[in-house]
Each structure stands twice: as structure tokens, then as C-alpha cells.
Design brief:
2 domains, Rossmann fold, alpha/beta, single chain
């Protein structure tokens, strides 16, 4: 189910799967129009790798994805896209491994550069390497958070146009420290305020903290007329039912939110299976007794009750036709953190119950009750 090299590192597997799935979709979409695409891994490693081939690291995963997309773009669209990749690493030993690995990749046709140093010291060099015009994806996956995820540290990068970000937000650490006086300056820099979560349930607290961070990130983006947008995926502790970290995504493209959430939904299923298997292995090692994986363990019920989603739709709609395109979908995904399939499933029931009509739907559809790519109009009956 999970490659052997990831055993005991299930969270890394989840993170790498998301990175791979999202980058693949992104590069294939962007590559149709871009001549050059840049990728920057600001905390590259290698870190906790299983072997010298580095195949279980974000370095190899990103490079393999770039090669695959470069070949795919050439074959499908006859488009020759130049991929450039920059890897930053502070630790000398890790940097040497990184450098040696990139040497073995020299013939791949991907332009690679490695820099040895501290991310915050190298921000100017990173921006110089990116140049001003090419689209750049920044992966920010540190081991700690000081001088990393705070907005003043990230701001020079956040201010760059034509950029997207995937940031590892160490939620479990933030949860423990956000109320401690000695961290209040850092909290101010991360959230724009010292979060007051007194009296909140653990679910409310989590949503509040992550939303505060996303809002602060968005507000740090330059005003270019394109709305800053953000979504996130929870990476859960393997054995305990709580968030380990969040992968926070930042873009200016509504389509990006749709594609990212689609990749997250696929990840959701993988994450459930991986955790169910890890729990099973843990159980066996403790009790020496196998316990068959129940479907219930794998298909944990969706957090979101369909009725909630139906209520949300009905509140949004009226007897006047309302247009739903990618912008509206991105707003809804950002606001609720539900998946597009949740919205489609709820709408399907509402249409069947004659409570909502899609006036642009000419023929009955089994799914995609609203086609957001086409912009369609919905009316509440
Ligand atoms: C979590 S690991 C990266 C894992 C990698 N992204 C992956 O998924 O395979 C973080 C890496 O950042 C390096 N690092 C830590 N602090 C750094 C800093 N301030 N600047 C640059 N690199 C740093 C660490 O040595 C470590 O290799």
C-alpha cells in the first residue's frame, strides 16, 4: 500500500503524494501557455531519506514530475517548455548529497541549481534566480518555524507576482505555543495578531488559527487586481486523530484552488487508507493479534454532512438566476474547505428534490450538476 521506504514516515508519503499530484496538474495546465516554469524548494534536504537514490524526497519527486510534464507537454501539445529548479539547503552534509544528486540529473534537460545557506539570508538570491517574469512555484517545507513561516520573513517572496506557494504550517507546534506569552511576538508575526482562542472547541480553534494564517498570507500579497486565494490540506498524525501539520496553498488563480482541492480530495482517500494500515500494524505489534481492517476504518464518514452542504447551497440561491463559474467555486471552496464533489452531490439531491434548477443544463447529468468551467445559472425553486 505504501512504499517500504516510507514506513514509519507516513506523513512524508502524504506530503509527497500531494506535491506530486498537484505539480503534475499545475505544470500540464501552465505549460500550454508558458515557455519557462520555475520551481523553488526553499528547504530541500535531503532529509530522512531511505537510500542514496533520493526517490523518497521532495527533490527527486519534483524533478521526476518536471521531466514527466516536459515530455507530456511535448507529446500532447508539441510545446517545448523549459523547466528550471532551485534547491536551498542549510545543512552542509545534506547540501553535498543534494549537489551530488543534481550532478547525476545533469543530462535530464531540467536546469537545476543548488544553494547552500539559510533561507532567510538567501531570499534576495532566490528572487534574482527566479527573475521577474516567469511563473514560479515555491515549496516551503522547513523543520522549524522561526524565521520561516512568519509573514515578515516570507513577505519578499509573497510580493513577487506570478508565484504560487505551498507552505508547511506546523500546526501541532503552533497549537501548543500560541497562548504562551514568550511566543507572542512570533504569533503577532505569524497571524498579524496574538490569537485569542479561549473558550473555543478544539475544532473551532484549529479552523480559527489556520484561517487567521491564510488571511495574513493573502493580505501580504501585492494588490494587482487579482484576488489572492488560499486553501489547505490537513496532514494527520498517523496513529492519533489529530492534525500534525497543514499544507497551506496560496495562489491568485481560482482554477488553482479547484485543482488543488481536487488533488486534496484524492489525497484524503489515500490518507485514510495509509492511517488505517498504520493503525493496524501498530495494533499487531502491540497485541500480536491481527485485526481485520474494517471498511469503516478506511472509509471514515465524511466530516461534512451533506445536509450542511445543501443548506449552504439554499442560502446562496434565490428565485433569481445566479451564475456559478470558477471564481464562485473557488470562493466556496476557500470559505468552507469542502470538496467540489460535496457541492455536486448536495446539488444533485436538491435538483432531484425539485428545490433547485440549473437553467443551463440541457440534458440530465449523473454528476457535475453545475459545470463551473462553463458558468451556469442556478435558481432556487
Ligand atoms: C523538513 S526537511 C525537508 C524535507 C523535504 N522537503 C522533503 O519533503 O523531502 C527541512 C530541510 O530544511 C533544512 N533547513 C532547516 N532550516 C533551514 C534554513 N533556515 N534554511 C535552509 N534550509 C534549512 C534542513 O536541514 C532540512 O534538510
Amino acid at each position: 500500500m505504501i512504499p517500504e521506504s516510507y514506513e514509519g514516515r507516513e506523513q512524508a508519503y502524504i506530503k509527497h503524494t500531494l506535491l506530486e499530484k498537484y505539480l503534475e496538474r499545475l505544470f500540464m495546465i501552465l505549460g500550454k501557455n508558458e515557455d519557462t516554469i520555475c520551481y523553488v524548494d526553499c528547504f530541500a534536504g535531503p532529509w530522512q531519506e531511505d537510500g542514496d537514490d533520493l526517490q523518497d524526497t521532495s527533490i527527486a519527486i519534483s524533478l521526476n514530475t518536471m521531466k514527466k510534464c516536459r515530455d507530456g507537454l511535448l507529446k500532447t501539445y508539441n510545446k517545448n517548455v523549459h523547466f528550471r529548479a532551485l534547491f536551498i539547503e542549510k545543512n552542509k552534509n545534506a547540501y553535498e548529497k543534494l549537489h551530488a544528486f543534481l550532478d547525476t540529473e545533469a543530462a535530464s534537460g531540467i536546469e537545476t541549481t543548488a544553494m547552500n545557506g539559510v533561507f532567510s539570508d538567501l531570499r534576495g538570491d532566490i528572487l534574482k534566480w527566479c527573475g521577474k517574469t516567469d511563473f514560479t512555484f515555491f515549496f516551503i517545507d522547513p523543520t522549524g518555524w522561526k524565521n520561516v513561516v512568519e509573514i515578515p520573513t516570507l513577505k519578499p517572496l509573497l510580493q513577487r507576482p506570478r508565484s504560487e506557494f505551498l507552505i508547511n504550517f506546523m500546526f501541532d507546534f503552533i497549537l501548543r505555543t500560541h497562548t504562551q506569552i514568550e511566543f507572542s511576538k512570533h504569533m503577532q508575526e505569524i497571524f498579524g495578531e496574538v490569537p485569542d482562542t479561549a473558550g473555543m472547541s478544539s475544532k473551532e480553534r484549529e479552523t480559527h488559527l489556520i484561517d487567521l494564517y491564510r488571511t495574513h498570507l493573502k493580505n501580504a500579497q501585492p494588490n494587482t487586481g487579482l484576488k489572492a486565494r488560499s486553501a489547505y490540506v490537513k496532514v494527520l498524525d498517523t496513529l492519533k486523530d489529530r492534525t500534525k501539520y497543514d499544507l497551506v496553498y496560496l495562489t491568485r488563480h481560482p482554477k488553482g484552488i479547484q485543482v488543488f482541492m481536487d488533488a486534496s480530495e484524492k489525497l484524503d482517500f489515500i490518507q485514510k487508507r495509509v492511517r488505517a494500515h498504520a493503525k493496524e500494524a501498530h495494533h499487531v505489534s502491540k497485541t500480536k493479534q491481527p485485526k481485520l481492517l474494517s471498511t469503516e476504518m478506511i472509509n471514515e464518514p465524511s466530516d461534512e454532512d451533506l445536509n450542511e452542504v445543501k443548506k449552504y447551497w439554499l442560502n446562496k440561491l434565490s428565485d433569481q438566476p445566479k451564475r456559478f463559474g470558477i471564481e464562485e467555486l473557488a470562493d466556496m471552496l476557500e470559505e468552507t474547505a469542502w470538496f467540489e464533489s460535496d457541492f455536486q452531490a448536495a446539488l444533485k439531491e436538491l435538483v432531484a428534490e425539485n428545490k433547485v434548477i440549473n437553467i443551463d443544463m440541457k440534458r440530465k447529468r449523473p454528476k457535475n450538476i453545475v459545470n463551473f468551467d462553463n458558468i451556469e445559472r442556478l435558481v432556487r425553486v
